[in-house]
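Dear support,

I submitted the protein below through the web form. The confirmation email said the job was done, but the results page showed an empty box. After a refresh the structure appeared. I'm attaching both so you can tell me whether what I see now is the final result or a partial one.
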Amino acid sequence: MSIPNIITLGRIMLVPIIVWAIVSSQMEVAFAVFLIAGISDAVDGFLAKRFNMTSELGALLDPLADKALLVSIYLSLGIWGDIPRWIVILVVSRDIMIVAAVIVSWLFDKPVEMKPSKVSKLNTAAQVAYAALVLASLAFGFKPSPYDMILMGLVTVFTLSSVSLYLVEWLRHMSTIEAK
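What the results page shows now:
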């Protein structure tokens, strides 16, 4: 168990704290914990690359931590009406589709290699920025317009582009299965 993996596990353990803070209307706490999670993501990535501490476990845990954090925040903010529910459905559905595709490929004994594309990285950045803006506006009581609309547009475009690219690549990969 490397230091980056321990930091990533710590980030996963922050998820219930952020959800609690959001549903308890403790937005300052939610925003602060979100910042801590973001900093920890940067630190574990830096340590893993800089000191050659990358591992298979870390390659699985890091995106899992990111998705657990973002999906939990989007669901919590959506349930409480702080962000539009359609954007929650879009973000969560993308992740469900990708996970389902990975599971199906495992079931067919054709595991697909998951490497995040540039669009996927832009998608994650847009989702993080939008979540941070909404949490900050709720924590500090400012109106996020027009930046919230701009970020919602970016999240929408990148989410749809990302899931489309993943599904096309997955279909290409799965089309090599021979019928029995």
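Response: this is the final, complete result; the empty box was a page-load delay. The mean pLDDT is 94.
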